[in-house]
């Protein structure tokens, strides 16, 4: 039996730390990044780049 691609690369939600409720949806490699993902991305509600943290 082969492992599914969602086992190694699960879909994660990235929520804005600017408290706007804006989210991005992406995939991450669980083997390379076992801890929670933090990326700096654009939040169109506040019109600037802010940190987005992984939500479970």
Describe this structure in words.
The mean pLDDT is 91. The N and C termini lie far apart (27 Å). Strand 1 and strand 2 (23-27) form a beta hairpin. A 4-stranded antiparallel sheet has the order 2-1-4-3, with no helix packed on it. The chain is elongated, with a radius of gyration of 13 Å. It is mainly β and 56 residues long. 7% of the residues lie in helices and 45% in strands. The protein is built from 1 helix and 4 strands. The chain has a domain at 1-33.
Q: Which structural class should the secondary elements be placed in?
A: mainly beta
Helix/strand order, N-terminal first:
HEEEE
* Largest beta sheet: strand ordering: 2-1-4-3
Poorly predicted runs: none
- Count of alpha and pi helical runs: 1
The largest pleated sheet is described as: 4 strands, antiparallel
Q: Mean of residue pLDDT?
A: 91
Assess the beta-strand content as a share of residues. Answer: 35-45%
Bulk shape:
elongated
Count of DSSP strands: 4
Helix content: under 10%
Distance between the termini: 27 Å
Q: Radius of gyration in whole Å, from Cα?
A: 13 Å
């Amino acid at each position: 039996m082969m492992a599914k691609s969602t086992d190694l690369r699960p879909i994660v939600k990235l929520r804005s730390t600017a408290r706007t409720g804006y989210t991005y949806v992406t995939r991450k490699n669980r083997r390379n990044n076992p801890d929670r993902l933090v990326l700096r991305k654009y939040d169109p509600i506040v019109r600037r780049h802010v940190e987005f943290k992984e939500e479970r």
